[in-house]
Amino acid sequence: MTEHPAYATLRPVTRYASVLLAHNPSPMTLEGTNTWVVGEPDAVGRVVIDPGPEDAEHLRRVADHGPVSLVLLTHHHGDHTDGVERFVELTGAPVRALDPALCRGAAPLRDGEVIEAGGLELRVLATAGHTADSVCFAVDHDEPAVFTGDSVLGRGTTVVAHPDGHLGSYLDSLRRLADLPEGMRVLPGHGPDLPDVRAIATHYLRHRNQRLDQVRAALADLGPGATPRQVVELVYADVDRAVWPAADLTVRAQLTYLQEAK
Description:
By secondary structure, the chain is α/β, with parallel strands linked by helices.
């Protein structure tokens, strides 16, 4: 069986979900963006979750596994959405997202809504935090799974990028994911799939609280006037400096959270 990462290949993960990995690797996208092609084997149409970057070859490969009846977006970041306009041209499929500005020929998503497409029912979970418009899609049947976008990654942890990202909202979203049934598979926007969303969301919560404790300790050491960069240099000293700009945004979100908690 093909394993992650596998470029230019539709990799089956569950009976109803396969993934095409875009060739846009970076410190922020890991091996690249996962574009999910979703539908029961006997269904006529397919749902595509996050067409990915504006990469003509990748978009054509995804479209070739249609017909595509619906496009769903987990959030607005360009590595997930820059290819939408071209993909709509290729497939004619409507596009739905939480943000109305991203929709094409269809209504915005609603939290708790159940979408019937591709022979499946996909339940919309608003999971703000990574971005204000982040959503996940849960499949609650005999092979349960949740498409997590960037709310949960297959490897490492997610950036909460101030000011669009909000740590308090993200912690609430992680608690919501941690309340999902045990054994629900994670089908993420980046990295390999994981076996249990409850376990990984619980791990994320523990990690976030540990980082907050480290930020509190750094502020006690540096003083209340410490800059985000000074905090990054202490708290994220073990992290690749290539992602320090993202860590800076996360620290800003952490400092905002601590200020709001006072």
